[in-house]
Prior knowledge:
The protein is mainly alpha-helical.
Amino acid sequence: MNVKYEGQEFDLDLEDMDTDQARAMERFGVPNLKALEDGVAEGNLDALTVVYWLMLQQNGDGTRIDRVKFKPIKFLRALAKAQEDDAKDEDPKEDAPSE
Length: 99
């Protein structure tokens, strides 16, 4: 998905998380992938931090997870918008001609 946050665009694909990143997530305090998904849905700061960090990692920024600084409410809104945009892009009804 394409996340627009603080005037920049980032690619983010949680499915591309590798085992080293998953272990870093666990050491940071998010115990598993379900907790990550649930935590983002609930606005959990640790889960949002992990997702923000992953986004940075996937876009070439090597900032350590414990050094990440961001605005969580703005980031949560940017994630929601990106998910909404992705859903529209994947909805075949959107591309179908009207009758």
